[in-house]
What does this fold into?
Amino acid sequence: MTIALYARRKQWPLDDVEVRLRHSRVHAQDCRDCDTKEGMLDVIECEIALNGELAAEQRNRLREIAERCPVHRTLTSEIKIRTRLI
It folds into this structure.
């Protein structure tokens, strides 16, 4: 949604966005580009298809925007969940 809103505001020829996510858990010691080296890590692989007559620089900018969306920022930040019964 963030990508589409940005492209619309810029009046870029984005026709459709398709996002595919794949989730897995890996041993932290097997993750070369991760800070954590103990336990298990969640890995989310994201593939974004941008349909439309976009220039290469527009596509790259939209990829950058995808990494700034609220959901992406939440998932890449430290998360603390507090559960309580009510």
Remarks:
- The longest strand covers residues 14-27.
- The chain has one domain: 2-76.
- The CA atoms of residues 17 and 50 lie 5 Å apart.
